[in-house]
UniProtKB/TrEMBL annotation:
Record organism: Eragrostis curvula (weeping love grass)
A GO term, aspect molecular function: UDP-glucosyltransferase activity
Ranges annotated as biased composition (Low complexity): 24-38
Residue stretches making up the Glycosyltransferase N-terminal domain: 51-277
Stated name of the protein: Glycosyltransferase N-terminal domain-containing protein
Gene3D superfamilies named among the record's database cross-references: Glycogen Phosphorylase B (3.40.50.2000)
Organism taxonomic ancestry: Eukaryota, Viridiplantae, Streptophyta, Embryophyta, Tracheophyta
Keywords of the record: Transferase
Family matches, as Pfam families: Glyco_transf_N, UDPGT
Length: 490
C-alpha cells in the first residue's frame, strides 16, 4: 500500500519529470485515459457496491466519465453509482445521466482573477485564465474530503481524473491501495527537426518527431510555465500510484500498447480497455432531434466535414479560419463547420452547400448520418472514438499520427511543434487537397481509409456488445474490485 505525501519538483528526477509530462500530455491532448483510485470513505449502500466518480471540469474529460457512469449503472444494476460535480456543471451532467446515478454537488471555489460562475474550461473567457482554473479545481480537496468522510463505509472504488491529483491523496489517507498511466518520451540530445525517435517502452514502430511532441512535454523543462508548475506541485506522482487506469479505447485498436502502459504504474496495476465509453453506455440522450438547435440534421447534403465542437479551447486565429474557409469552399464538397468564435466573419461566401455553426451540435448524430463522408477535426480522443465508431475517417498531433499513420483511417494536415499556439498557418491549398483526398471515393488512398474506418467501426461495436472485449473488461474490473474489497479497505 503506497504511502501518502505531497510530490514536488525537488524530489522529481529527470526521468520522473518526463513521465509526468507525458502523462499530462496524454490527458490534456487525448482524453484517452482516466486514473482509477481505490478509495477509503463510505457509501450510502454497502461499500463493496458503491462507485464514486469525479470528472475534471472540462467537457472532453467529463463526457467519457458520464458515459462510464451510465454503463456501470445500466450493466451492473447491483452497483450504486455517485458522480461528483459542481453547481455550474450539474445541469449538463444530469441531462446526460440516468436517474439511477446519484449526483452530488461540491461548491466550486472562488479564486480571482477567475470570474464567478466559470466552472468549466469551455466557459473560460480566454485561454490565459486556464492556470487559474486549474488552481481553483485543486481547492476542491477540502469539500471532497468532507464528502468522503461523510460516507458510512468505504466505497468500492473512486474513479477520478488525472488533473484532480488531490483525490488520490485523500483516498490514500483513508487507507486505500492505489496505482497510474502514460509513457515517457523525450528526443535524443540534439535531435534534428523532423527526425524520428523511438518512444521508450513502446513497440518499435512507435516513433515520433520533435514536431509531434505535445506542448506540455515541450515546456516541461520550464519551471516558470504555470501549467507545468501546477502539474508538479498539485498532481505529482498521484497518477502513477493509482490502483489502475481506465482507457477509453478497445483492445482491437490498442492492445499492442497495454503492456507498455501498465509498466508505467506500480507492480500489479492494470489498464482496463472499456471503450468506446459512449457506445458502452448505449446512451441516446444526445441523439434526440430536440437537442439539435441549429437544425444540422434536417438538410440533405452529401458530405459534412465537421470540426470538433468539444475541443479543449485551442486558439484558432482569424487568419487560420480564413484559410480553412477558403480551402473548404474550394474543395467543392458540401460541409458543416463548427466554429467556436462569435467575432470571426467568413472571408468568402460558403454558398448553399456550406453551413457554419457557432453553437453546440449533436456531433455523434452528425457523424452517424448517411450523408456524412468525412470528418475534419483537431483530433481530440472523444472525437476520434466517435468518428471511428461511425465508420468515418477523421483528420492533437499524436492522435492524428496514430489514426493516419498506424491505423490508416485518416489523412493528416501537418502542423509544427509546440501545440496550437505555435502552429504556422496551414494554407487553403493544403486544406483543399486533404479534404479532397479524404472525400475522393474513387482514389486508392480514399478507398484504403474507408476500408480501415469500416473495420474500426465494426471492431468498436463488437467490443461493447455482449461478450465483447470492452464489456468483458468492465465485468472483470468490477469482479476484481469486489473480490479484493475486504483485503484492500482499511
Amino acid at each position: 500500500k503506497p504511502s501518502a505525501g505531497n510530490f514536488n519538483s525537488t524530489d522529481c528526477s529527470n526521468q520522473q519529470q518526463q513521465r509526468l509530462a507525458m502523462a499530462a500530455a496524454t490527458r490534456s491532448t487525448t482524453t484517452t485515459t482516466t486514473a482509477v483510485n481505490s478509495a477509503g470513505g463510505g457509501a450510502p449502500k454497502a461499500g463493496r457496491d458503491h462507485v464514486v466518480i469525479f470528472p475534471f471540469m472540462a467537457k472532453g474529460h467529463t463526457l467519457p466519465l458520464l458515459h462510464f457512469a451510465t454503463a456501470l449503472s445500466e450493466h451492473h444494476t447491483s452497483l450504486s453509482v455517485t458522480l461528483l460535480t459542481t453547481p455550474g456543471n450539474a445541469a449538463f451532467a444530469r441531462s446526460r445521466l440516468p436517474a439511477s446515478v446519484d449526483l452530488v454537488e461540491l461548491p466550486f471555489p472562488t479564486l480571482p482573477p477567475l470570474p464567478a460562475g466559470v466552472e468549466s474550461t469551455d466557459a473560460l473567457p480566454c485561454p490565459s485564465l486556464y492556470p487559474a482554473f486549474l488552481h481553483a479545481t485543486a481547492l476542491l480537496r477540502e469539500p471532497f474530503a468532507e464528502f468522503m468522510a461523510s460516507l458510512p463505509s468505504p466505497p468500492l472504488v473512486l474513479v477520478s481524473d488525472f488533473f484532480l491529483g488531490f483525490t488520490h491523496r485523500v483516498a490514500t489517507n483513508a487507507g486505500a491501495p492505489s496505482c497510474s498511466t502514460a509513457c515517457p518520451a523525450s528526443p535524443s540530445a540534439g535531435a534534428e527537426p523532423g527526425a524520428l525517435f523511438h518512444v521508450p517502452g513502446m513497440p518499435e514502430h512507435v516513433a515520433i518527431t520533435t514536431e509531434e511532441i505535445p506542448d506540455t512535454v515541450a515546456k516541461f523543462a520550464d519551471p516558470e510555465d504555470l501549467v507545468v508548475r501546477f502539474i508538479i506541485d498539485n498532481i505529482g506522482d498521484s497518477d502513477v500510484r493509482s490502483w489502475g487506469v481506465l482507457v477509453n479505447s478497445f483492445a482491437t485498436l490498442d492492445e499492442d500498447y497495454v503492456a507498455s502502459l501498465e509498466a508505467f504504474y506500480q507492480p500489479g496495476a492494470r489498464a482496463w480497455l472499456v471503450g468506446p465509453m459512449f457506445l458502452a453506455a448505449a446512451d441516446t440522450a444526445e441523439l434526440d432531434e430536440e437537442q439539435d438547435p441549429e437544425g444540422c440534421l434536417s438538410g440533405s447534403t452529401r458530405e459534412l466535414p465537421n470540426r470538433d465542437p468539444w475541443s479543449t479551447f485551442p486558439h484558432i486565429s482569424d487568419e487560420q479560419l480564413d484559410e480553412i474557409a477558403h480551402g473548404l469552399v474550394k474543395s467543392g464538397h458540401p460541409f458543416l463547420w463548427v466554429v467556436r468564435t462569435n467575432t470571426w466573419v467568413p472571408p468568402v461566401d460558403v454558398g448553399p452547400n456550406g453551413l457554419i455553426v457557432r453553437g453546440w451540435v449533436p456531433q455523434r448524430s452528425i457523424l452517424a448520418h448517411k450523408a456524412m463522408g468525412g470528418f475534419v477535426s483537431h483530433c481530440g480522443w472523444n472525437s476520434v472514438m466517435e468518428s471511428l465508431a461511425a465508420g468515418k475517417p477523421p483528420e492533437q498531433p499524436l492522435n492524428a499520427k496514430h489514426i493516419a499513420d498506424i491505423v490508416g483511417a485518416g489523412v493528416r494536415i501537418h502542423t509544427k511543434a509546440g501545440g496550437m499556439a505555435a502552429v504556422d498557418i496551414v494554407g487553403r491549398k493544403e486544406v483543399e487537397e486533404k479534404v479532397n483526398a479524404l472525400m475522393d471515393a474513387d482514389s486508392e488512398v480514399g478507398k484504403r481509409m474507408r476500408a480501415k474506418a469500416t473495420w474500426a467501426q465494426q471492431a468498436a461495436k463488437s467490443a461493447v456488445s455482449e461478450g465483447g472485449g470492452s464489456r468483458v473488461a468492465l465485468q472483470e474490473l468490477v469482479d476484481e474490485l469486489q473480490r479484493t474489497y475486504d483485503d484492500t479497505v482499511v
